[in-house]
Amino acid sequence: MSKKTNNQTAKVNWPITILLIIGCLTVFFPLYMAVIIAFKQPSEMTNDIAGALAFPKTWSFANFSEAMKVTDFWHSLGNSLLLTIVTVILAILIHSLAGYAIGRSMANKKFYNFAYLYIVSGMFVPFAILMMPLVKQTAQIGIANRFGVIVLYVVFFMPMNILLYSGYLKNIPLALEEAARVDGATTWSTYWNIIFPIMKPMHATVAVLTAMSTWNDVMTPLVIMSGTGKNTLPLAQLNFQTQFGTNYNLAFASYLLALLPILIFYLICQKQIINGVVSGAVK
Hints:
Radius of gyration: 24 Å
Shape: globular
Distance between the termini: 42 Å
Strand content: under 5%
Structural class: mainly alpha
Order of helices and strands: HHHHHHHHHHHHHHEEH
Strand order of the largest sheet: 1-2
């Protein structure tokens, strides 16, 4: 009996193992290339595979300091942080409240069911279709600036976030709210004092997904804030691409610098992310 158990334990699922190895390589190989290119000098960039994969002869931070000058790093970082932080806060407050109102009412009222389907259908609308009307409308309203970009982000991320919040609410028993009503709590106080804290895993998930999308977005700031001088990091990084080529050494150094803030934020929230995604996907 013990031998049979040991054989079952020692058995390796090779197809899954091979797929995991390939998956790891597809993730770590580009990261490896980004790191070594960021530390290399332009003279070390060769066309042969061995030269491209080789470590730098001397590990220098000169590319990083030069990249910070070219992108006006601290100014661009401040704009990216402002857009990301405000968008995340508004998304958590507004989308969680809307998800609660829709998720708790859609089973009994057709209007909320229609509202849910209408809002979630926004995920299937490409940005390219909305781009030109948004540019014209934001200019006419006078919000072709950072405020306008934040408003657009809150609207763009609403479909996915409401989908997650309304799905996560299915795991929160109604008995909690019924008990609160018996104790005299209003719907507003029940939500903020009971439901909102319980949705902490989903808040973390929404925060990370929204932050990553906002942090890496190029098109929305490009078409809305063009000419305002309020560049975000992705916009500033376009300076490395010219008509005659791309300075890969400075570009990858800048990419690594831009990666650090969002990576730190992800590590802070990652404990709650898996539970939030799995629970929010429950129909």
